[in-house]
Amino acid sequence: MTARPTTVELLQAGRERLERAHPGAQLDAEVLLAYALRMNRAKIRSHPEERCEPHEREAYLTLIERRASGEPLAYVVGAREFWSLELAVGPAVLVPRPETELLVERALTLRAATDGAIGDLGTGSGAIALALARERPGWHIVATDTSAGALATARRNASSLGIASVEFLSGDWFAPLAGRRFHLLISNPPYIAAQDPVLDAAPLKFEPRAALTPGDDALSALRTIIRGAPQHLERGGWLLLEHGATQAPEVARELVVRGFAHVRSHRDLAGHERMTEARWG
Fold first, then answer.
1. Please, are residues 247 and 191 in contact by the beta-carbon 8 Å criterion?
2. For the whole model, what pTM was predicted?
3. Cα gap 15→117, rounded to integer Å
4. What gap in Å lies between CA 199 and CA 275, rounded to an integer?
5. What is the per-residue pLDDT across 232-272, written as a single tens digit (0 to 9) for each?
6. CA-CA to 30 of 20 to 30 Å: which in 76, 80, 100, 169?
7. CA 151, CA 166: separation in Å to the nearest integer?
8. Of 192, 259, 270, whose CA–CA distance to 228 is shortest?
9. What are the chain's domains?
């Protein structure tokens, strides 16, 4: 490759490198080239003969190596789209997944009112809270997290999106919510057992461990939320939980034992039962 390669030459080099590491990742090469050149992908396609400067080449190849190592694309470019919102993400927060949008969909369905109090437990990047705030500007949303880095990311996302209706609080689950009650409580807590080898493989090995696993008992965080939720739910309020693809029956049992009613699990686009909702009172 020449010192001043064309965009098509750089793109081909990136595709070949990623194809060796992750078959099917060719699209990532184009996304990363657009990011490195500060150019949209349409222009890259329409100007394949345009030459790149040496520093642009080096920057691009560095990005390609990061992606080839298994680092999530969202971390490499520093952003991820969720519910049509562009969110800043980094190693302090989980990369928002498409299946988590199911929590947003169900929350909007279960509460059609334009006002309400909503709690987002373990907000991370703020994805769920900010998506709900965009759809229901009249809702007052409280988002909690124990991670200072996560809260900083969430607040930055709220600011960049111009959303002021979310209150961010530091603390473990319900700890910052003493005396408060909500119409909806929502959480995507850690639910992978600490001994699960998936945690040491890409892409999860790059993401914050505390946001992925609660310890040896994969359900411990879910149990904590289920057991504490009634003290913070209005009568007729709903609890919505994301969980692992095989955990729906156990989560449902925990909810029934705690006294919740109308317990229902919902499937994501892949057909997995990934979230369960239940009504209190």
1. yes
2. 0.91
3. 47
4. 21
5. 999 999 999 999 999 999 999 999 999 999 999 999 988 99
6. 100
7. 12
8. 259
9. 7-69 (1.10.8), 92-279 (3.40.50.150)
